[in-house]
Design a protein that fits this description.
The chain is globular. The longest helix is centred in the N-terminal third of the chain and has 21 residues, at 80-100. The protein has helices spanning 20-30, 80-100, 117-126, 140-145, 151-167, 176-184, 201-204, 238-249, 266-275, 289-298, 312-315, 319-326, 338-346, 357-369, 371-388, 391-407; strands spanning 2-6, 34-39, 57-62, 65-70, 105-109, 129-134, 170-173, 192-194, 223-228, 255-260, 281-284, 301-304, 331-333, 349-351. It contains 16 helices and 14 strands. The protein is an alpha/beta fold and 408 residues long. The protein has two domains: 2-198 and 390-407, Rossmann fold, CATH 3.40.50; 202-388, Rossmann fold, CATH 3.40.50.
Length: 408
């Protein structure tokens, strides 16, 4: 089977961002399918292509995956208008591929929601099977966060969401809340598969033997709690600084909070930390997967932090949560929802209320004071990873779902 796979933010493990599409595409290739990956450029990604662009695109084969990369630069620091222009530019160029390439099934993954446009065109103009993967509910999340307020834009996005769902023969949701959101738009449950993000044991489980390391400013005996990912509005990282301030008030100089990544709000967070003298917060630039694995292996707690937006509670499936589990790292979740419930049920970390720096600080102090119990949490985190989120198992379900889309 020939699969045209559209993901604007595709990256191999050499980049400093999620690799779900790379992992899923590899498993389809291992089944004997041919995969054409269509993507854009991202400041933190590595597509594996190194040749020159010709007429705004370059192509090649990366680990058995045919890749087309458009020269459409994107960064987490970009403003709303620049992001929108990049999203639309990718959609337009993707439509050309969707209407001319040779394939059996077109698969597209958000975000952004505009990723569904080539699938819509392929379905209605060429009669191709279209499978749509929903990573975030649009426009529900941007509306809930206040990022998009224009009524006309919200109505247009809602219409695009509805058309994407109705055009797709099958859909994939990354969390229970996303599956529920798709079903609320009138899509039959039989057309929706729940395939969350998975755990890469070969990377974070010690398979690569990544050297453990701690950033400058973190002592060997300090409790190190790490956050890895975007420093943006959705991430709500002021909560970490609030917790750091509470730890300072309680005289806990043995706990360090390490924020690894980049994003639009990182300069403001750094300025606040400097202004308030929060020397227990350590900022570090993004690193590739291999080096990140070494950092996580040296950490004591993984921070799963998001802004207190109810739409996030069951409607997200962040990569970092599964990276922590893969490494057997206890997790601290600061918002309600399916991840907090799993953490509590499996006793593999801490779930604290949103907007409660005292509770966050208390959880980290408990971790620092009870290292034996913390190790037990880590063992249960790894058990959860292997029993429910093994990437090989989820990759098999993914390939099965795409194969079925060709015949149903």
């Amino acid at each position: 089977m020939r699969i045209a796979y559209f993901h604007q933010h595709f990256s191999t493990p050499a980049g400093a961002m999620g690799t779900r599409s790379y992992e899923m595409a590899k498993r389809c290739v291992a089944r004997g399918h041919r995969v054409l990956m269509v993507c854009g450029s991202h400041a933190l990604a590595s597509t594996g292509l190194t040749g020159p662009y010709r007429r705004g695109r370059r192509s090649g084969v990366v680990d058995g995956i045919d890749v087309i990369e458009f020269r459409l630069g994107y960064s987490n620091k970009d403003g709303f208008l620049k992001r929108s222009a990049t999203f639309l530019g990718f959609a337009v160029r993707s439509v050309v591929v969707a209407l001319t390439a040779d394939y059996d099934v077109l698969f597209a993954t958000s975000t952004p929601l505009t990723a569904g446009i080539p699938g819509i065109c392929a379905r209605w103009l060429r009669g191709k099977s279209f499978v749509f993967e929903v990573r975030d509910l649009w426009p529900e999340l941007p509306k809930a966060m206040g990022v998009i307020r224009n009524r006309v834009v919200l109505v247009a996005l809602s219409a695009l969401e509805w058309l994407s769902y109705r055009s797709a023969r099958r859909l994939i949701a990354l969390s229970p809340g996303i599956a529920d959101g798709i079903a609320r738009r009138g899509v039959a449950r039989s057309r929706i598969a729940l395939i969350p993000n998975g755990c890469d044991f070969d990377v974070f489980g010690g398979g690569h033997g990544a050297a453990r390391w701690r950033p400058e400013g973190v002592g060997a005996g300090d409790l190190m709690a790490v956050f890895t990912g975007t420093h943006g509005l959705a991430n709500g990282l002021d909560a970490v600084l609030d917790g750091a301030a509470e730890l300072r008030r309680r005289g806990r100089g043995d706990i360090r909070l390490v924020l690894v990544g980049d994003g639009m709000l990182k300069p403001a967070l750094q300025l606040r930390a400097e202004r308030e003298g929060l020397d227990n917060v350590v900022f570090h630039p993004p690193v590739g997967k291999a080096k990140l694995a070494g950092l996580i292996a040296a950490a004591d707690v993984g921070l799963q932090i998001l802004a207190n937006v109810p739409a996030f509670y069951f409607g997200t499936s962040p990569n970092k949560f599964f990276d922590y589990l893969s490494a057997g790292l206890p997790v601290l979740v600061n918002y309600p929802g399916w991840m907090a419930e799993m953490t509590e049920e499996c006793r593999c970390g801490y779930a604290v209320p949103p907007g409660d720096p005292a509770a966050l600080a208390a959880a980290l102090m408990d971790a620092a004071d009870h290292r034996d119990a913390l190790r037990g949490m880590g063992e249960r985190a790894r058990d959860l990873a292997r029993s429910r989120f093994d990437r090989d198992v989820l990759g098999g379900a993914f390939a099965d779902w795409l194969e079925g889309a060709r015949t149903t």
